[in-house]
Each structure stands twice: as structure tokens, then as C-alpha cells.
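Researcher: Here's my situation. A collaborator sent me these components and asked whether they could plausibly form a single complex. I don't have experimental data yet, so a predicted model of the whole assembly would be a useful starting point for our discussion.
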Amino acid sequence: MRYLLVIVMTVASIATASAQAPKKTPATPAKTAVPKTPWGDPDLQGVWNDATSTPLQRPGTVGAKDVLSDEEAEEFQQQLANDLSRDRRDGGADADVNRAYNEHWMDSRRLKITSDHRTSLIVDPQDGRIPALVPLSPEREKARAARNAANARFNAGLPDQYMDMSLPVRCVIRTDSPPYLPTIYNNDFQIVQSPGYVVIAPEMIHSARIIPLGDRPHIGKNLKQWLGDSRGHWEGNTLVVETTNFRTDDGVIFQNANPEAFRIVERFSRVDAKTINYEFRVEDPTTWTKPWTAVIPWTKIDPDEQMYEYACHEDNYDIVHFLSGARAREKRGETK
Amino acid sequence: MKAAIAVLFFALAVRPALAHHAFAAEFDSKKPIKIRGTVTKMEWINPHAWIHVDVKKPDGTVEEWMIEAGTPNTLLRRGFTKDSLKAGTEVIVDGYQSKDGSLRANGRDITLPNGQTLFLGGSSPGAPYDEKK
């Protein structure tokens, strides 16, 4: 039975990102004519991809620089790509076994910085960092601790019950809840428009977020939804979407904000035929000391690269498997 | 400094994705394997593809291994098609065996006899996705 069992510790062939100097793209709305739908709205339809290696917050490596020169940008991109790459073989067996989930599984665009050479997706405040946090109320502190304990049980392979798996783990809601941030794969978003509505369908989880346009009031304050309640309108050629009414379920709300106070305004501006500037501004005075804003370029993808099914779970029984596995471990005497 | 970038990335990008894809939960870092065998079929199933490999043992018997591979949509986007890895192809699999001891492994590296490595980010056959960029 023990035939070719060999411990292999070879040096990884590390795939580095393309060293081509990115072209600068103006981060301002299009000056040329924006295509219009047959009923006269700006046309944002298509499939867009938001993958990038540019971090949400400015890393200390770049100091206070918000935009890099071509040479600096190339170095920054290579450094990020090297750090992010899962094709490397350093780090020992424990790291290696998880890196079998290597770059081939990932969106290759995630190893490239934004073409405007910014050092953070956050553009406000100017330091490119999330503002200071407001101290949590005792009630939220308690809820946070409970969530962390549940996550720890799950990560130890010993969840008590299905709620120990957060909604993203249960594949109910994950990156489809605004604001949209780049992730490791399935970074595509399809925008579909009809008179009076815009629909955004993220590839991951593929929930359709239906945004009514105009001055229709929000739903009642007591009605909460995983994707919130969105209302849109046009400011020139920019689609502005304001969203409130998020549910309080843990594991979904952005950056652990307080759903009762969380409000997000997104702005979709067509920069050119192949680019939308996706800007989001979040505010929640019970979580952050001031609102903050990020801008992420969305690139129109080749029509040949269609949206695909995002299959989140191995069959539909993962939760049963997680729980039955945990009970089996307990019988073997494993403890949390 | 590198660590700072890595931590930021983790907070930003890995938010939910690795939560239930933890290979360490399924495959054993203490059971590294290196096997040489012949592909019998590749299952293009969601969420992850599986490569079936027959491995001849020294006593002449054959073991049927299953090697977990990437998700079909990502494989397609990187130019890997159903014709890329045909039955009969000889492969060397460097990976980790499943914790339950069954003949399953994750494919850390899968290499052809000529040394070409499959399923590494920079080594996709064709990779039209990247070329179009």
C-alpha cells in the first residue's frame, strides 16, 4: 500500500504578474457620448469585471503616495502579485495543502493593480484608510463575540449547529451584498436595464439586485433585506443608487457595520466604452467616525467570456456534512 | 511590509471564499503524495472538477485515484477545455491525500512527463483569457 509516498519540497515556479506598464485611464466620467438605451437612459448594460490587486486600504509600503509613477506602479504590482500568489511552495505543508487551491482557480485579473496606479481603492479620506472606528455598544460587543465564537467553532471543524456557519459560508449571501469589492474569483457583474429599473446580477451567488429608478420611497423601516433596499436615479450619465434597510444577520453586513445605521450610496459612471467607475460611499456614525469612499474600476469583459454558474457548495448537503463531521469528531473525543 | 499587504488582501478579498474551501479540512498535510498514473477521465462537475487517475502498483494491481481540480468556469476562462487532458495521458500528481484515507487527493502540482505543469496560474494551455487582456 505504501508505494510512491514522497515528500516533495520543490521550489515553486512562481507566476508573476505581467510586467507591462499599465496605461493610464482617466478616473473621470466620459466626455464622449455615452451610449443610450432605446428609452433614453445611459446604457450601462453588459458584463463587467472588478478584479484588481489594488488593496482597499493603502499599505504602509507606499507611504503617503496615493498615485504611483509607472516604474513605482510596476514594482507595486509585482510585489502584490508575489504576495498574493498561491502558486508558491514556501511556507511548509500546512500552507501548501491549502495552496493546492492555486492560481489556476483564481481570477488572473486579481494580480493587476488599477490602471490609474492608485495605491488604495479608498479615495476618501485622503490617507486611503478606513476611518477610526467608534467604540462598540455593549450589545454589539456581545453580538460580535458570539459571532467570533461561532466562527471559531466552525473553523475548528466542530460547529454546534447550522447557525455557526455564517450566511456566506452557507452560500446564502456573500459578495452579492453591496458594496461590491473585488474577490479572488467570479468577479463578474451583469447589468440589465429596462424602463424604470436597473438590475445587477453578480456572478457569485447570482442574486439579482433589482433597483427601482425614480423617487419611489424606501420600504418601511421594519422591513429588512439581505441586499438592503435600493433606490436609483440618474445624475447626468451617472447612475446613483442609495441603499438602506439591511438585515441584521451576522456575517453579511459590510465590515461589521450596524444595519440600523448603515447607508450606502453607489455611483456608476461610464468612463469609456470598456470602463465603469464604481464608487461607493458608506456611512454609519455608530461604526465609523466619518463616512468613507472607494472607487473600483469595472472593465467590460469580452463577450465570449460569458457569465457562468457559480456553484458554491459541493452538492446541497454541505451543512449536513459539516455537522455530521463535527458530531463524529466529538465521538472520537475531539474538543473545541 | 509584505505581511501588511498580505493581511490587507486577506481582509479584502478572501472574506468568504475560503471559508468552506479549506483544503486542510479535507486533505492531510501529513500525507503528501507523489503518484504517477494514467488519466482515465476528467469529470467537469461543479463546484470542482475531478481527474481520475489509474495508478499501477509494483505488484501489478491498479488503484483508482481521484484528484480534485479547479472549478469548471475558471478552468474554461483560463483556456482549459475538455480536450486539454485526454484519457490515456500520463500525469505525475504532487498533492495531499484525503484525511479519511480514501484514494483521493488534491492536486498541488500536476505534471506531464515532459515537465509541463498543469493548473498553475502561469502555465495554462492556451490561456485566451490572458492573451485578450
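Model: Some features of this prediction you could bring to your collaborator: Strands of chain B lie at 27-43, 50-56, 62-68, 90-98, 104-111, 117-118. Residues 2-13 of chain B form the longest helix (12 residues).
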